Prior knowledge:
The protein is of the alpha/beta class. It has helices at 16-25, 47-62, 74-78, 83-87, 97-107, 119-124, 126-134, 148-153, 162-176, 194-201, 210-224, 246-256; strands at 5-10, 31-35, 66-71, 92-95, 112-117, 139-144, 182-185, 206-209, 237-241, 264-266. Helix content is 43%, strand content 18%.
Amino acid sequence: MNSHAIGIFDSGLGGLTAVRELKKLLPHEHIIYFGDNARVPYGGRSRQTIRRYAEQDIRFLLSHEVKMLVAACGTVSSNPPPKEFLQSLPVAYTNVLMPAVQAACRQTKNGRIGVIATAASIHSGAYERQIHRLHPEMTVIQKACPLFVPLIENGYIQRDNAVTIQVARDYLEPILAEGIDTLILGCTHYPIIKGLLADIVGPAVTLVDSGKECARAVKQYLIENDLLNHSTLPGEQQYFVSDKDQDFGVKAGIFLGEDISSHVQEVAIDHY
Ligand code: DGL
């Protein structure tokens, strides 16, 4: 039993897809969330910069009492900090990559898996490598979708948003033409527009939500390591951002289904 918080980070709103799921699965857990919205998007940056940002995000979360660290960001998961850094962490660290890969491999029937993610995630080859490590016979069709994160961060998230639909069609039609039956949303921002994406891919393609799969993996880890909070009170959430723009709380609130504007605090991430 451990009543410390779960520390989660992402470049912006995306990691909230994991937070939303965690709140459902583990309603008594405290959560500290950091969204690096001053430096979003990470997905167009070099591996070195993504690693440096991720190390700062982790150090910030470790300045609180956390029992576990979660990189709820596909880009960081595909371009992780060096092994020595991760091995030196005082608590367990996990990310969204393997839970999403495992779920996709379980769900596909025809062995043709699509992956959409940021440019940095796709160029790292991490999703494809991990799928082939588990199942060398499977076919992986990848596509970088660099416009999705800015669209989502700017609130173009309604299911009928004409701009986002047009962009999504451009990205998805070539992958659909390859006959995939499973599509990994390899960026945690994408489940925010899951309805819109589902309308385009149709019912024959299963969408794998990396935030959701990651939340399941976190729950499993806490159970197996006796780290659950046994309190019967609702868990508390604290939200931190690196740039307190007015909109973060509002957009996050729409997505989380509750107004969090008054809980959002700013942090000078460069100091970590
Ligand atoms: N949610 C992040 C991810 O999963 C977005 C990356 C970005 O900031 O470009 O990749």
